[in-house]
Each structure stands twice: as structure tokens, then as C-alpha cells.
Amino acid sequence: MDAEAALREACESGRFHEATTLALERYGPEILGLLAARMRSDADAAEVFSIFAEDLWRGLPGFAWRCTLRAWAHRVARNAANRFALAGARRAALGQPVPGEAIEAVADRVKTTTLVYLKSEVKSEIRRLRDELPPEDQLVLVLRVDKDMEWREIAQALADEDLDETALVREAARLRKRLQLATARLRELAAERGLLAR
């Protein structure tokens, strides 16, 4: 059984604690990697990941399966990051622990192993180049290239609401073009720094 089918079966059976654990194990590392790229601070990324894990746990009972759980989880993480960024001085109040020891343990394990992996020298150089791109370009690049998400799934993950079929196709095409422009810009930046032959 693939991950999405197992997650759906757990949710439909009312086993939300199990579904949250499965979702964090399956999608947690990629989401934390995305948060680390966006937040530019391991401590902030870890805090947002904790907020995301709680939001995921609380939101699963109401998830309607109009998109993949993977896309929805990315949307939940993006919303958690946005709230964190807006909170400023209230950040500490948002960082409540994830209910349940098992879920907290999974979140901690994902944070520990993923943040160590992200510190390699090559990753640091790539991150520095990506940091010069606009935030939406960074998100599209990470979701498509690093996480190998399909265009429709990326469009769903980055949308603020559910999209009808026409809007979904149009948004996927817009994002595909945005990635082309972002990768061209990355090549320019790499060439400027002598990382690529012109």
C-alpha cells in the first residue's frame, strides 16, 4: 500500500494519531528541509516544524482529500511559517508542544536527522544561491526539483484555497514557467560566482 493510501485508510478509520505519525515520517523530512531553506535558521525551522506538526494533527480530522495529503501538508507547513513570520514577539506563545509523546518523538527525530543532513558544504553553497531568489521561486524550486512533486500537486500546495480544474491547470502552467525563469537566474548567479563555465 502506498503512503497516501495508508494515510487515507488511517484517517477514514479515525486513527488520526497514527495518520499524523505516518505523515510526519513520510513527509516530515522534505517539509523540514523546505522550512530550513525558507527560515534560514535551524532554530526557527525547528520551531515552525513543531507548529506544523501540531497543525497537522489538529487538522487531519477535517481534511477532505480534495488533493493529496502531501500537498495539503505542504500548505499547512507554509501557513505555519507565515504565522510564525507574522508573530514576531508572540512567537513563543505559538510554539506549543505537539500533543502525544509518540508524535512529539517522531517530530523530534525528523528535525534531528534532517537538520544534520542539510548542513553539508554543497548544500550550503546551493542554499546561498537559492537565497537570492524571491521566496515563491525558492518554494517552487524546492518542491519540484528537491521533492519531485508533480505540477498539479505544487499548485495545490501553494494555493491559499482549493482550486477548480481550470484554475489548477492555469496555476500549474504559471508555476512551471516560474521555475524555468528561476533556474535560468540560478545559472546566471552560479556563472557570476565562477561555479559554472559560461
Q: Can you describe what's shown?
A:
By secondary structure, the chain is an all-alpha fold. The protein has 2 domains: 119 residues, no CATH class; 79 residues, Arc Repressor Mutant, subunit A (Orthogonal Bundle). Helices cover 76% and strands 0% of the residues. α2 crosses α8 and α3 packs across α4. The radius of gyration is 17 Å and the shape is globular. The N and C termini lie far apart (47 Å). The model has no long low-confidence stretch (mean pLDDT 81).
Pick out its properties.
single chain, mainly alpha, 198 residues, Arc Repressor Mutant, subunit A, globular
Number of domains: 2
Number of helices: 10
| Helix-strand sequence | HHHHHHHHHH
Which value, in Å, is the CA radius of gyration? 17 Å
Question: Uncertain regions: pLDDT < 50 for 5+ in a row?
Answer: none
What helical percentage do the residues reach? over 70%
C-alpha termini separation: 47 Å
SS-derived structural category: mainly alpha
Largest sheet entry: none
Q: What best-fitting shape do the alpha-carbon axes yield?
A: globular
Mean pLDDT: 81
Strand content: under 5%
Total number of strands: 0
